[in-house]
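Quick start: read one record
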Amino acid sequence: MTEHDFVHRGVKVLVGNSLTRLRELPDESANTCVTSPPYWGLRDYGGENEVWGGDSDCEHEWEHYTRQSENTRNNDNSLQLKSAYWDAQEQGHCKHCDAWWGQLGLEPTPELYVENLVLIFREVKRVLTTDGSLWLNLGDSYWAGNTHPILKPKDIIGIPFRVAFALQANGWWLRQDIIWAKPNCMPEPVKDRCTKSHEHIFLLTKSQNYYFDSEAIKERAVTKSSSGNDCTDTRLTYGVGGGNTGLKDLRKKYKKDGLPTHRNKRSVWWVSPKPFKGAHFAVYPPELIEPCILAGCPEGGIVLDPFGGSGTTGAVAIKHDREAVLIELSAEYAKLMPKRIDTLASRTKIIEAENEKLGITKASFDKLFD
């Protein structure tokens, strides 16, 4: 523990570089990881430059350069352009090995950003239990540079899938791509493409067989009547013979057991982004990650977030009777976490159940805690 580290209501907060602090955690000490790393080329989070990759035995000799500030670049970025800003950055490459000196998220190329995330999530994988999982939220951006062997100006870079495939190549099981659909997305002043209104959440696992509580995240079924007699669906999932035979078997099951009230959660999650007045950086809404924690971590387990931000992951974890370990680069941002955790953790399942009985909509419920 450093002087800035603390524990608040079952949430352990470690302040410092995520890669450095992850290396301090014991093997197989967390059940799941729910996180959203700094997006590539978005902003300066105020940390000191770190050495990434290369040879640990190398006595680095740096070839320094300056990466120009964001406000001087003509950047067609699909993220929050009003927040995308950093001052000129002094960075460097080692003359003798592949090491790079700089801040995560401000790498000169998307390839280097991906490499650095692979290093971090290699440590995350070590910290997870054998049946552990990783829920990774990433946004995309557009290329605005002039020199790249593949990318051209205005090309979408494909950051989320580049990272996901790199982690897959590094030994992770890539299980699912979940779409975070945003009903009230950030408007974009573009005329030659659609406004971006979604991000990706990847479910990756440490092993082929892993903990996943599908019952905990089931959603209400929309079925109001059984399947029709004249349907010609040939999917074998409805019966050995498929076609009408299979559908009739399903009708018999519904007649005997009743219509299902719930179904497996779908892979498109409609969740509205919410601003956080406590800081300038973006935070994901608690409703977005509740299914991740409920499905990926048993009660009493530990949720890890190496990019703790405002503490949302920790708040949702303790709300649902889990513990959490968060790592946050900035000591100033870490100070904001206790209040955020206290506010969000007070939204108990009992209150949600009562609201549901009263017919209060999700939108009106959220307003109670703005």
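Residues 65 and 91 are 6 Å apart (CA to CA).
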